[in-house]
Amino acid sequence: MRKQLLSVLLTLAMCLTMLPVTTLAVNGGADDPDNEAMWQTVEGGEWQYGTFAQARSGVYEGGTIKLLKDVGTSSSITFSSKDITLESADPDHPCTLYRSSGIDYLISITSHKTLTLAHII
Questions:
Q1: C-alpha–C-alpha distance, residues 112 and 38, integer Å
Q2: Is the model more confident about 111 or about 26?
Q3: Residues 69, 50: contact at Cβ < 8 Å?
Q4: DSSP-derived secondary structure for 52-80
Q5: Which of 31, 39, 54, 64 has the most neighbouring CB atoms within 10 Å?
């Protein structure tokens, strides 16, 4: 009986040590090659990681989107619902926001909103 209890406790302990690793793997992070940007959904909140499109829709009003790498788009990008700052995550290595040929303009700002660019080429 004592050995069974000990084996159950050890098994439970081993399972619990794997939980944080699984949680971190889902979030990705700056090193995940699929992530293009990081942003916060609320001021002072936890940084989220994902695509540039996810960042544009998820960042809070007046928030900052930090590009993790160069980002290309095949259509124009419209900023119409929030004031946003767009910057490179590493100021020493500016990121490039570029478009494929065939579209007239890269960025459109409407509804009297502000887009601030920092360390973006």
A1: 25
A2: 111
A3: no
A4: HHHHHHHSPTT-EEEESS-EEESS-EEE-
A5: 39
